[in-house]
Amino acid sequence: MSSHDEDGSKQGPATRLVRTGRDPALTGPFVNPPVVHASTVLFPNVDMMAPGAQKYAYGRRGTPTSDGLETAISELENAEGTVLCPSGLSAVSTALLAILSAGDHLLMADNVYEPARHIAVTTLARLGIRTTFFDPTLGSEIASLMEPETKAVYVESPGSLTFEMTDIPAIAAAAHARGAYVLTDNTWATPYFFKPLDHGADISIQAGTKYLSGHSDVMIGTLAANDAVWKAVKNTHGNLGLCVGPDDIYLANRGLRTMGIRLDRQMQSALTVARWLEQRPEVKRLLHPAMPSDPGHAIWKRDMKGASGLFGIVMDGWSEDKTKAFLNGLGLFGLGYSWGGFESLAIPAKIHRTATSWEAGGPTIRLHVGLEEPADLIADLEQSFARIGNLA
Ligand SMILES: *Cc1c(COP(=O)(O)O)cnc(C)c1O
């Protein structure tokens, strides 16, 4: 950045997405950072091989390519530091392993990404870490679930598949009062719409595979930490030997520059599609915190600056066969996991609960609205509704 551009704090979020992480001292005069393929780094003499004497020492420990994206994410998340992980899930496991030790207790919201639950009940359980799942709509009442050994509270707001909002500031206040850390999965909102660390969280995780990369062609995770936990995160990430290939970092960095306009458009298109769906007799309920009818709307409005293109619909009393026929009949919505790319997607949602029950009155479908014209997406949904007609 040129000298008159150093104070980005007064600039708006779209400007920061363009400017951040582009220090010419690091990346040269090029608009995009160089893609450095490196394992070995050479030193001019033996003295320079001492730890810390030279900025770059080994490919796994950082390159100008990884530094560029880490700096950008730290700025966007208002974090002390960021590490890059080879997938969103590895960012989740790294965060948990950085904070928790044998004998510790973890509180995990009941609506988080299913593989995150799986880490807790398998790997963490094996290491002697206990997990209690809790109702994600609990706010400060979470204090009643805290035990002397509770070291962390893990939340995702809105939650995967069911989209309940969690009151992160209330959870953070209760957790910090008892000496526990708050870990958040911020994949849905991204730091463009929500900065968890500004609302009391200690760690913000993003599956950069989703909106950051934005083109369904990269696996990457980001783990941004505040000063209370940054050293532990950096050490654990280093010990686990995690790093991301430079081509994938490059693509994520490239995606970052257009993430704002993609999200702005996908939010609007998703709301257009959601408003149309809300009027349909087949739809019992919408799961979308930016819709005024949603029970989490007040928290969403208070904390977040926008909504992404991912939401759910509960089908009114539909059978599994009818749900399948509807999904099979879609043309523009692809059937596929993951989301955050430019294309629209649909999946049947398999909801797994242990602390709460999920009885919505029908099967749930998750939709990801991409960059197609909303009118075309609505026409696609309409033709599939018409095609299944009066199927039982
Ligand atoms: C996809 C996803 C992840 C995992 O990301 P991967 O890159 O697929 O490993 C984690 N959390 C949430 C909320 C996700 O949607």
UniProtKB/TrEMBL annotation:
EC number(s) recorded for this UniProt protein: 4.4.1.13
Keyword Lyase: yes
Alphabetical UniProt keywords: Lyase, Pyridoxal phosphate
Taxonomic superkingdom: Bacteria
UniProt xrefs under InterPro entries: Cys/Met-Metab_PyrdxlP-dep_enz, Cys_b_lyase_bac, Cys_met_metab_PP, PyrdxlP-dep_Trfase, PyrdxlP-dep_Trfase_major, PyrdxlP-dep_Trfase_small
Chain spans, region Disordered: 1-26
Protein name per the record: Cystathionine beta-lyase
Species for this entry: Kaistia dalseonensis
